[in-house]
Amino acid sequence: NSKHSYYPDSPSIRISKMDVIIPFSPDVPCDSNGQRMWWAFLASSMVTFFGGLFIILLWRTLKYLWTVCCHCNTKKKNAQRVHNPTSHGDGIKHTKETVAALSEVGWMTSVKDWAGVMISAQTLTGRVLVVLVFALSIGALVIYFIDSSDPIESCQNFYKDFTLQIDMAFNVFFLLYFGLRFIAANDKLWFWLEVNSVVDFFTVPPVFVSVYLNRSWLGLRFLRALRLIQFSEILQFLNILKTSNSIKLVNLCSIFISTWLTAAGFIHLVENSGDPWENFQNSQALSYWECVYLLMVTMSTVGYGDVYAKTTLGRLFMVFFILGGLAMFASYVPEIIELIGNRKKYGGSYSAVNGRKHIVVCGHITLESVSNFLKDFLHKDRDDVNVEIVFLHNISPNLELEALFKRHFTQVEFYQGSVLNPHDLARVKIESADACLILANKYCADPDAEDASNIMRVISIKNYHPKIRIITQMLQYHNKAHLLNIPSWNWKEGDDAICLAELKLGFIAQSCLAQGLSTMLANLFSMRSFIKIEEDTWQKYYLEGVANEMYTEYLSSAFVGLSFPTICELCYVKLKLLLIAIEYKSDIRESSTLINPGNHVKMQEGTLGFFIASDAKEVKRYCSHSAIPLFLILLPVLAVEEEQHSTLSPKKKQRNGNTRNSPNGSPKMTRHDPLLMPGNEQIENMDMNVKKYDSTGMFHWCQSKDIEKVILTRSEAAMTVLSGHVVVCIFGDAKSALVGLRNLVMPLRASNFHYHELKPIVFVGSLEYLKREWETLHNFPKVSILPGTPLSRADLRAVNINLCDMCVILSANQNNIDDASLQDKECILASLNIKSMQFDDSIGVLQANSQGFTPPGMDRSSPENSPLHGGLVRQASITTGANIPIITELVNDSNVQFLDQDDDDDPDTELYLTQPFACGTAFAVSVLDSLMSATYFNDNILTLIRTLVTGGATPELEGLLAEENALRGGYSTPQTLANRDRCRVAQLALYDGPFADLGDGGCYGDLFCKALKTYNMLCFGIYRLRDAHLNTQSHTSQCTKRYVITNPPYGFELVPSDLIFCLMQFDHNAGQSRASLSHSSHSSHSSSKKSSSVHSLTATNRTNRAKNRDSRDKQNATRMNKMGQEKTWFTDEPKNAAYHRSIHIKPMSTSHSSHTANHQVNQNPYKSTNNHIPSIREVEDEC
Prior knowledge:
By secondary structure, this protein is α/β, with parallel strands linked by helices. Among the domains are: about 35-80 and about 110-225, no CATH class; about 245-345, Helix Hairpins (Orthogonal Bundle), CATH 1.10.287.70; about 355-495, 3-Layer(aba) Sandwich (Rossmann fold); about 695-840 and about 885-930, Rossmann fold (3-Layer(aba) Sandwich), CATH 3.40.50. It contains 40 helices and 27 strands. The protein has a six-stranded parallel beta sheet. A six-stranded parallel beta sheet has the order 18-17-16-19-21-22, sandwiched between helices. It has a five-stranded antiparallel beta sheet with strand order 20-24-27-25-26, sandwiched between helices. Strand 12 and strand 13 form a beta hairpin. Helix 2 packs across helix 4 and helix 3 packs antiparallel against helix 4 (about 160-185). It starts with a strand and ends in a 23-residue tail after the last helix. The model is unreliable at about 1-20, about 25-30, about 640-685, about 845-875 and about 1075-1183 (pLDDT under 50).
C-alpha cells in the first residue's frame, strides 16, 4: 500500500515516500537514498551543551576535592610548623612557590579582565562589539526567514549557496564572541545555562555540520529571535533610550515579539517535519508566517480554525503555549497600549528651517496668554514676520489651545517639556533660537512665587546657553533685582524684563498728569487693525487713532544736520509720519533716547527715529534711501526757515516763545543740552548742601519720614481742604501681596517737575497694608495717608475727592478669588460708590474762592483752566461723583462692562473697544501683553515706554534700588540737575489762550506746527468730549466724558473744548520765577491747584479782566498772610509760602467772579491749604 512519488528533476528512480524525505539531484553530492539526517544536527547541539556541562561539573568537583585536600594538608603543615619550626632553606623555597602562584593568578586575572572589557559597554570597543553581535544576530534571523520558504532539510552545496556562506561567517563570529563571554564569566555554570548561551548551542554547531554533510537543516535556528530581548539594552548603550517609560515600553515589546517569533518557529519546525514516531507521515506544509498568524490568534483566544496544528508535538506545544501566551498577551498588551497612550504627544524635537528664525515661548502657557500673544505677534500690520514660534510647556494643551495651534500650524509648534530640563532645551534648539520669551501668570495668588519661577527659568536657560536673548515678564518690581545677579544677564545685549507692576502703575500715574494717556499709550504699543465706521460717532474718530502704532526706523541721511523740530514738522506735514523721539548718540555718554528734544539737538548719521504711523511699510518707505530725492526738494525751504529762526534777535526770540510766562511776555522755554550742563541760572542758585533729589537727579527726594508723621485723621483731612491732589484708593490688608506703590509715586515725583508743581498724593486704605509699602515711599515728598476704606464716603469726603485731579482705584486682593468675575468686585464697588456721591455746589465755590486766583494773562478763576496743564480741565465745582476723574484698575477685562452703567458696550466686546477704556477711566494689565512681541521686534520700544511712563527710571537706578531698595538722596550738582532737563507729557486747552483762534474750527495740523515752532511742544493726540461731534449747544445736557484720538491727520477739525496731548519742554526758570513771585504782593499768582499745569501760555490783552484779577489777588494775598500769622503748624512746605494750592471753579464772568470772591472770602470756615497739611512734611526748597 505504499505510495510512490517521482521527482521530475532527478533520474527516474522509484522510491517509497516513507523512505524519501529530502530531494536530491546529481548536481548536489548528497545521500543518494534521500534519507534525513536531522538527528546529526540535533546531536551536535546536544553533545556540545551536555558535554560542556559535564566538563564544568567535573571541573567543579575536582576543584572542590582539591580544595578539601589542600585544606587538610595546610592544617597538618601548620601543626608541624608549630612543633618543628621551618629551617631557613625551607622558608626560601616556600616563598618562591608563593610568588610563582601569585604571578600565575595575576596572568589569569588580566586575561579575564581583558575579556570582560571587550564584551562590556563601558568602552567604545565594547559598545561596538555588543552592537555588532546584536546586528549579526538579527541578520542571522533574517537569513532564517529567507530559508524558511525552503524545505526543512535539503541538500546544499556550501560553495554555491550564498546564504549558507553568510550564515557560516556570522556563526564563526558568534563562536569567538562566545569564547570571550566564557572567559569573562565569573560563574561558568550559570553562564552555560544562560539564554544566549543556549541559543548559541543550538544554532552554531548545526552550521558546521551543514558544511560537513553538504545539507541544510532549518532546525532550531529560530532561537535567534530570542536575541531581540536585548534590544532595549542596545538602545540604552547608544543613548537612545533615556526615560524609564521608553525603556519599559521597548522591553515589553521586545519580550512579546521574541516570544511570539520563537514559538512560531517551533510550530513551523514540527508541523513541516511531522512526528518522528509517525515516521513523519502527519506533516503539513505551513509557511513560517502562517505559523506566526496561528500563534497570534491562539494568544488572543480568537482561534478562527483556518490554521491549526496537526502533529502531536505541535498540539502538545500549543497546550502549554496557550497557558503562557495568554497570560503574556493579557498582561503585556494592555501595558504596552497604556505606555503608548501615555507617551507625550508633543515629545518630539524641533527641526530648524534654513533661512527662518525661531523663538521659544515658555512660562505661563494658557489659551488666553497664547491667543493674546499670537494676535499681536502675527499681526498683519507688522512687516513680513518670518519667525517660527515654538511653545514649550510641561503640560499638554487642552482641546481649545490645541485647536489654536492647529490654526497657526504654519508658524507655531508646541512641545511638551520644561525649560528647567536641559534635554528639553536641546529638543527646541534653544542654542539656535533668536530669543526666548517667558510669560508670567498675571492672575496668580502669589506674585513673588511666580516671579521666582520665572527667574529660575532664566537661570536654567542662561546656564544652558549664556548668549541667548531673554525677554521675561515680571510681576513685582523688587524682583527685577534678582535678574541682575545672573552673570550672563545683559540688558545691553537685548535681555529685558518687562515688569507689569512697574508699567501698569506708570501708565496710571501718567493718567494722573494727563487723563487718557494710559489708553493712548496702550493703543500705540499694541497692534490693532483698522476698523472703518461710516457713521459720525465718537467711535469713528477713536478707532482711526487706534490704528496707529509705534515703529522705529533709521532716518535718511538727508536729515543730517537738521534740528529735531524741523524734521518733525517735515515728517508730519509732508510724509504723514509723527516723529516723537530719537536715539541720540553722544561722545560723552552712551546713546540715550530723547523724547522731543529741542533745537539744540542736530541729527546725526544713522539716527534712530521713533514714529507713530498706521503701517510699518509707510515708515520704511519714507525713511529709506530711495526717498532722498523727495527730501532734497523740501529741505532747502525748511533749512532757510531754521536759519532765519536761529538768527532772530533776542527780543524777537522772546516774542516767539523763548521767555518765561509773564504778564507782558510769552512763555520762556529755554532748552539746554540734556547731555551737557544745566543753564547758568540753575548753577547760580544751586544749593550744594541740600539734598532735594535722589542721587541720579531723576526724582524729587526728601529725608525719610516715619509713617506716623504722614497719617491724617478724618478731621485733620477735612480741615486741610485738599485740592489739586491725587487720591489713591487701595484695597489691601496685612496678608495681601504688595502692589508696589513706589512705581505709582515715582512718575509723579519726577525731577522734571518743579517742587510747587508736584501734586499731593493721599492714600486711602488699610494702615496695615500701607505700613508694608511705606518702606519704599518714605523718601518722597507730599505724600500722606488716611487710614480707612475707599468704600467709606466719609473718608472720601474728608480727602475732598470732588476737588482731586485724579482718583486712582487699585486692589491688592484681586488674585485671591477663583471666580474671575469677582476678582474686581472691590474696585468696581468703589468706582460706583464715588460716581453716585453728591456734593454741595456752594461749598465747592466757597473753597475755591478762598484761595483761587487767575494766573497772569489768563481770564479764569484758576490756573487749572490754563491752555497748558497736566490734567483734566474741570468745570466749576463738581456736584456729582460722575464728573470726578477716575481711573480704575481691572484684572478681568470683561468686568469693564460694570464700570459705566450708561454705556452700550456688549459684554463680549474687546477691552480697547469699550467706552471706559477709550475714555481713559479703566486700565487692565492685559494690555501690556503686547509689549512682549513689541520688545522682541524692537528693544528700543521698551526703552521709550519706560522713559515715558516711569518718570526716568534707568538701568543705573534699578541697580541702586537692587542694592538698597530705596532711593538715596544726592546733592545738587550740574550733572544731576542736567537730568531734570527732559520732556514730559501735558495737555493743552484750546478754549482760550494763544491757540484759541485754532480751537474753533481750526485744523489740527496748523496747531501742530504752531505749537512746535513757537513753544517746542510736540502734539500727538486729542482728548475730546464724547458728544463734541454733535455740536450740542446746551452745555448742561452735554456729556462730560472724553475719549482719546491718537495722531489725528493734518486737516482734522478742532473744537474749543478739545484738550491736546503734547510733549512739553522743561522750563529751567519756572522755579526761580515762582520764588520771586512769592516775595511780591502778588505771591498768590504762583499758587496753583494743578501744579503741573502752571505753564500757562500768554493770552490776548484783556484790560478789564486784569483789573478784576488784580483786586481779587490782593484780597487773597491779604487773607493768606493773615492766616499764616495765626497758624504755626509744622509743615513740609517751604517757609516762604510760595507754593499755595488753589481750587478751580468754572470760568464765569469777570465781574461775577470778583464779586463772589469779595463777598465770600470772610465767610470761609475752612483753614488755608498752605498751613494745614499735617500729612505733608518736607524741609527742602525749590531751587
